[in-house]
Design brief:
- The chain is α/β, with parallel strands linked by helices.
- Helices cover 44% and strands 20% of the residues.
- The strands form four sheets. Strands 7-8-6-9-10-11 form a six-stranded mixed sheet. It has a six-stranded parallel sheet with strand order 14-13-12-15-16-17.
- Helix 11 (303-319) links the parallel strand 9 (292-297) and strand 10 (324-329).
- The radius of gyration is 41 Å and the shape is elongated.
- The chain starts with 8 loop residues before the first helix and ends with a helix.
- The model is unreliable at 1-5, 163-171 and 173-178 (pLDDT under 50).
């Protein structure tokens, strides 16, 4: 008790000053003694009296002063506790296990049941668990909802006085075992959240709507009914826009721009943009269904930026074949629809325009470098050969980039190697191509539009002039700053597109037999011998190649498989698993097979010949990755399935590559996607 009654600091010094002043008085007394002895004696008496009085006051009044201080501190502490208890900010103290030790009135009013909180605060706020408690001096913030209110929770670690000074000298294990408390603050942000939501709901979304096949659909109906078809489609579109309180304006006969509030976007997303189905269902005798594409720019910081996002989204929708809606939110892209097969354009105007543009680019450069996708196939190689012929016709140096020669490409490639009609440096690997390119080089990318899938992605950064010729649907990942981009998802193959371009180059261009064979084989492989994705223009391109000297018998002999591959294919088909009654799952072996991914694609095609099979998925483990080949006829859009796993392709031909997983895990991921799509009505 004696230690507790000591005085400290400024108060103790203040009470000692009378005693310390005695020293000054003694010094004054000595000075007076030197001047007048009688006066100094009188002074000494008064100094002694002063010292005695000061000493008595110090010891007699000290307990009284301490008592007054204790009473003041008690009253002050009571006021503090009362203020804290009645504080408008909800506040509580928890122990290290999450039990509430104390909470002020506001906090207790919010939680209602103090008993539950004293057992564990998790009983009141399930999000506040021991795992989220702060481990250091940094506060932890959480946002949660409780009884129709939104709160920001701040958790702060409070050290107990006995370890506060030495806490930061402890190791991690000792810190965990040390005694500490958790201060918990609740900030009501219901109003702020409501204002944020209101602000978000009122944001304007700009959208573009294009009719994909306006001319083709009108041509498929009698002339007297064309105005009726146009009116019905227009009415469907306007009625749909009225349901979301949108302002819509017709820009051209087949193009619209519309603006609506952000609060209606979830409604559109939940019904999967039902306008796509509604317009497609319009039928008054037209042989071809009308399809539309939509592009929306979301959460832009300005109207101009919103329009730019909408333009990028509609370009992406059209580049993927139309009949779908694309929502672009910054770098995030969401796809809806895309269930119908891309409509083949009857006119070749676009092919002619792109051919002339390509010719101008090639003529302006000294060197042409052509590359396809990694682990190239016959379509990629055939398209590259076609572009190579364009370059040579225009008297330009040309190279084709190939790193790994697959078994499917080797039969065709071998006819170019050691051929006196072709230069020795016609085929280069990535390292050689990087050394070959310069400022006066044009890079032509064929059969791929994703930079990460190209044979040599580094070339995209080393060349300023890039041309893309591809028939795969576009994804969010795209080659930037392409000088010319010709992407047509309706085309059966890249070889078909290049064959059309060749016919408009002029300059006396003439394909050699070996080149025509390479391109014809590309069309054959990608169409599975003209069974899938074939249209009028496909056969026209094939006819052009036949006239140029392509020989079907010679091509068929070149693509015969050996016995090892045939047995591997048979084993894969034998071990096929049927999932959900309509989906075939198989694993393609790699032992003794030079190009397992190509064989996997062949197995996927063969599985479609089985009755009741809507889609096939073949998994091949090769080079540390799981390659998935997905195929269908017309009952499932396998491109959408593969896109959910980071892949892509066409509605009936698609694929994906997975890393850091086994074949069983890859199969499980595809099955999960199919189950989810079925539950959500996408299938």
């Amino acid at each position: 008790m004696k230690n507790k009654n000591k005085l400290y600091g400024a108060l103790r010094s203040y009470l000692r000053w009378p005693l310390l002043l005695t020293i000054l008085l003694v010094a004054m007394n000595l000075c007076i003694y030197m001047i007048d002895r009688k006066a100094s004696i009188v002074m000494s008496l008064f100094v002694a009296l002063y010292f005695i009085v000061a000493l008595l006051l110090y010891f007699v009044k000290r307990p009284t002063i301490i008592g007054d201080m204790v009473r003041f501190a008690t009253n002050y502490g009571n006021i503090q506790r009362r203020l804290l208890k009645e504080l408008a900010l909800p506040y509580a103290v928890l122990d290290a296990n999450g039990r509430m030790l104390w909470g002020n009135d506001e906090f207790c009013d919010i939680i209602g049941s103090e008993q539950k909180a004293k057992k564990s605060i998790t009983n009141i706020f399930p999000e506040v668990t021991k795992d989220v408690f702060p481990n250091n001096e940094m506060d932890v913030e959480l946002h949660l909802s409780f009884e129709e209110a939104n709160y920001k929770v701040v958790l702060r670690k409070v050290l107990t006085p006995d370890i506060e000074d030495d806490y930061y000298l402890l190791n991690e294990e000792e810190k965990d075992k040390s005694a500490y408390l958790i201060a918990m603050y609740l900030y009501d942000e219901t109003e702020n959240m409501g204002l944020k939501k209101a602000n978000s709901d009122q944001k304007q979304i700009i959208g573009l709507l294009y009719i994909d096949n306006y001319e083709e659909a009108l041509e498929s109906i009698d002339e007297v009914r064309r105005s009726l078809l146009t009116a019905l489609v227009d009415r469907k579109i306007n009625k749909y826009m009225q349901s979301i309180d949108a302002v819509i304006k017709k820009l051209e006969k087949d193009k619209y721009i519309f603006v609506f509030q952000n609060k209606y976007l979830p409604q559109l997303q939940s019904n999967k943009f039902s306008i796509l189905e509604e317009v497609r269902a319009v039928n008054i005798g037209n042989e071809m269904s009308v399809t539309i594409s939509m592009g929306l720019g979301v959460n832009a910081d300005s109207y101009i930026r919103g329009y730019e996002l909408a333009r990028a989204a509609i370009d992406l929708a059209l580049g993927r074949g139309g009949d779908q809606a694309v929502v672009k939110e910054g770098e995030k892209i969401y796809y809806y629809g895309g269930k119908s097969v891309s409509v083949e354009k009857n006119t070749r105007v676009k092919a002619r325009v792109k051919a002339h543009a390509l010719k101008e680019f090639v003529e302006a450069k000294d060197k042409v470098v052509i590359m396809g996708h990694s682990i190239g196939d016959v379509d990629s190689f055939g398209a590259a050969i076609g572009v190579y012929r364009i370059a040579k016709t225009l008297n330009k140096k040309a190279h084709i980039v190939i790193n790994e020669v697959t078994t499917s490409v080797r039969p065709m490639l071998s006819r170019f190697m050691n051929n006196p009609d072709y230069e020795e440096d016609m085929i280069l690997n990535s390292a050689q191509a990087i050394e070959a390119v310069d400022a006066n080089t044009i890079l032509v990318v064929v059969d791929v539009n994703r930079p990460s899938y190209t044979e040599c992605p580094e070339l995209l950064k080393l060349t300023k002039t890039i041309v893309i010729l591809d028939h795969h649907r576009q994804t969010g990942e795209a080659i930037e700053n392409a000088a010319l981009s010709y992407i047509e998802p309706y085309a059966s193959s890249s070889c078909e597109m290049v064959a059309e371009i060749l016919q408009y180059i002029g300059e006396g261009l003439k394909l050699r037999q070996v080149e025509a064979d390479a391109m014809y084989s590309g069309i054959m492989i990608d169409t599975n011998n003209f069974l899938t994705k074939t249209g009028v223009r496909t056969f026209e391109a094939a006819a052009f190649l036949r006239r140029s000297g392509a020989d079907v018998t010679r091509i068929r002999k070149a693509f015969r498989t050996d016995m090892t591959e045939y047995l591997t294919k048979a084993q894969a088909i034998t071990s096929t698993e049927i999932f959900m009654e309509h989906y075939a799952f198989a694993e393609c072996g790699t032992k003794g097979v030079e190009s397992p991914t190509v064989l996997g694609a062949q197995v996927a095609n063969d599985l479609l010949e089985i009755d009741e099979i809507k889609a096939s998925f073949v998994f091949t483990q090769f080079n540390g990755k799981i390659y998935i080949s997905a195929r269908s006829i017309d009952e499932l859009n396998v491109q959408v399935v593969m896109e959910k796993l980071g892949g892509g392709g066409h509605m009936s031909v698609a694929g994906a590559q997975l890393v850091d997983c086994t074949v069983e895990e890859a199969m499980g991921k595809v099955k999960e996607v199919l189950i989810t799509m079925t539950q959500e009505g996408e299938i």
